[in-house]
Amino acid sequence: MTAQLAAMRTPSWQTAAGVLSAALLVGLPAAAGEFSVSPIRLDLGPSVRSGVIEVRNSSSEQQRFQIEAVEWLQDANGKDRYGPTRDLVFFPKIMSLQPDEEGVVRVGLRMPAAPVERTYRLFIEELPGKKAAPASGAQIEVLLRFGVGIFAAPSLPQDGLAIDAFEVTTGSIEVSAQNSGNRHHVVKSVEFRGTDAAGNPTYRLDVADRYLLAGTRKTYSASMSAEQCRGTATLAVEIRTERVSAARKIEITPAMCP
After folding, report:
1. Which residue of 94, 209, 231, 252 pairs with 187 in a disulfide if CB–CB is 3.0 to 4.6 A?
2. Do 149 and 139 meet the contact criterion of CB atoms below 8 Å apart?
3. Would the pTM count as exceeding 0.90?
4. Which of 18, 36, 37 shows the shortest CA–CA distance to 28?
């Protein structure tokens, strides 16, 4: 999978947004490397203690990469948070690849299986190159950073998913879902469906998401127009993951609408 743009290196006295805005205004050239990573996740556990990640330099120039392992958590709002970890051993920490060359990062678990899944990211970050700036002027170097998800399975996997709050206030919809199991969910869809008193559809919306880590509660938000809300008698939500799903319905009253 081609790495996604995650950061742009800039001088310490300038913000990335400021430099990018300047580039758009004055037409400075932007240089970006190209590389691919496979697989984009590793599943480790009691029976599989190590794995391999392949990095390919798809550009026409030499590329250097820095590799870093971090603990991956989600906070009370379901936002991703990262911190230092010593749970993983990996090699190399710096990689240099020639054009069309492929390198290998070996990753292993230091820790035994725990009651709750442990989750990590292995960040593969392109380092600044040594190209000289073109004679026409300054150059912006856009660097790529990709995070491989690493999942250390629990000793006894259990799945649970609950919708513990579902509210509509002046047309604003909020659904709170909790992963009550001990391993992550891959959220396939969050679907909202509204119907009138006769069962005819009045509202439909799909909200995108990805991971819901073990023990994490996340809120999904949507909105209805005044016309949609007043024409809806029942609003349903269904959250589907790769293993389980959860659904709830509520009756819509005029007091919930704008």
Report:
1. 209
2. no
3. no
4. 18
Residue 143 binned pLDDT confidence (cut-offs 50, 70, 90): confident
What lies within 8 Å, CB to CB, of 125 at 6+ separation is 6, 7, 65, 66, 67, 68, 143, 144, 145, 146
Report the DSSP pairing between strands 217-223 and 161-169.
unpaired
Do the Cβ atoms of 220 and 190 come closer than 8 Å?
yes
Residues contacting 82, CB < 8 A, separation 6+: 70, 71, 72, 73, 121
Judged by phi (left if over 0) then psi (alpha if -120 to 50, else beta), residue 40 lies in: alpha
Q: Which domains does the chain have, with CATH numbers?
A: 5-152 (2.60.40.10), 161-249 (2.60.40.10)
Least confident stretch, 1-5, 93-97, 207-211: 1-5
CB 188 within 8 A of CB 242: yes
- Please state the rounded mean pLDDT for residues 185-193: 97
What confidence tens digit (pLDDT) does each residue in 214-244 have? 999 999 999 999 999 999 999 999 999 999 9
**Between residues 123 and 133, which one has the greater pLDDT?**
123
Per-residue pLDDT at 23 = 29
Place of tokens 């919708």: 163
Q: What angle do CA 115, 119, 124 make, to 5 degrees?
A: 160
Region of 199 please: left (phi>0), alpha (psi -120 to 50) or beta. left
Facing residues of 186 across strands?
Answer: 211
